[in-house]
Amino acid sequence: MKICITSGYKGGTGKSTFSEILVYVWRVLGLRAEAIRPFDKGGGVSVVDFPAFQLTDRRHLAELINCNYLVYVVDEDPQTLEAIEKIHVLMKKEVLGVLINKVIGKPSKEFLKAYRRLGHVHVARFDEKLAVHRATGMAPYKVRSVAVLDMAKAAVRLYEEVTRLKRL
């Protein structure tokens, strides 16, 4: 089963961070999952961490089509929403969830409404501790941060959905 994490052509949304946390949480919960990059071969449950790519990139689009399920990691900005809406129309795949990342305060009602049309929405608050984890070289799931906690909660909910789908 391939689960693809994407934000379309928008970079810097936290896809790789969430992918690492997702795989870590799923392994702790007993699901044999692995994080891979597009075009890598994986077996069992593979979480594919897609980089930002243009919609004219046929190779990435073809790889995205091979995914069983999608998870969108997004920001609260119109460019990300536009990118995800285009991907959503093109792919016609089941969406496990939408993670609105780096939220300061409460998420905007406008973006919540728009993203709810695509799938179940999870919110991860902005936290400076997580924002600098790459510079320190520390794995994101080892950072004590509210953002990591929010992402871990989203990962647990996605785990529940995946295990439900595997039983069907």
Automatic annotation (TrEMBL):
Taxonomically, which superkingdom? Archaea
Could you identify this protein by its name?
Answer: CobQ/CobB/MinD/ParA nucleotide binding domain-containing protein
Report the source organism. Pyrobaculum arsenaticum
